[in-house]
Amino acid sequence: MSVDLVRIDNRLIHGQVIEAWVPHVHADHIVVVDDDVAVDPLQRSILELATPSNIQLDICTVDQAVRMYREGSFSRTHTIVLFANPQEAFAAFDAGFGFSVLNVGNLHYAEGKKRVTQSVCCNREEMSILRRFAQSGVTVEIRAVPRDQVRHIPPDADLTWEQP
Predict the structure, then answer these.
(1) Is residue 5 within 8 Å of 103, Cβ to Cβ?
(2) Potential cystine with 6: which of 71, 74, 99, 142 (Cβ 3.0-4.6 Å)?
(3) pLDDT digit string (tens) for 130-159?
């Protein structure tokens, strides 16, 4: 399977993905995995408009993404898989969608969240899920674009961990 990047970014498809990550991994396929977006015609249209015509786009639910992975749908493409949140990323991973590195690019600030980096803010549940990924052997890296310095979330990360 050729999944070149698995990323959590609540913005899904946007400039950083198209201008930095697509060329970095030579992607020709983007898979957006989001149960809500998959059934929302307006959100689907927005993502389709944001995707260059030379990039194949699939928008699917977690269950559909796991099925595509198991069927080998990514074996002939250079694929970026985008999740909007850690919960759905872990649901896919837990159901058998395999990957060894998880990139966390952006999680917006909201009440009850703590800043991890400039672009990533997590509540206790989200940080717990990221820590569970790390405890499962997945390298959890935080970086917005490929040129950024990588920051890792270790398996024993403090749930209130913040960047100094």
Answers:
(1) yes
(2) 99
(3) 999 999 999 999 999 999 999 988 777 665
Strand-strand pairing, 101-106 and 139-142: parallel
Torsion sign, CA atoms 107, 137, 5, 73: negative
Alpha-carbon distance of 34 to 62, in angstroms, equals: 6
Contact criterion met (CB below 8 Å) for 41 and 75:
no
At 163 the pLDDT is 43
Euclidean distance between CA atoms 136 and 140, whole angstroms: 10
- The Cα 103–Cα 111 span in angstroms is 23
Alpha helices in 54-148 (DSSP H): 62-71, 86-94, 124-135
Q: pLDDT digits over 81-101, tens only? A: 999 999 999 999 999 999 999
* Token code pair at residue 19: 């201008």
- Residue 44, CA distances (Å) to 38, 58, 81, 118 in order: 7, 10, 15, 28
Residue 149: other Cβ atoms inside 10 A: 7
The helix/strand/coil state of 4 is strand
**CA atoms within a 13 Å half-sphere pointing along the CA-CB vector of 64:** 14
Specify the 3-state DSSP secondary structure of 31.
strand
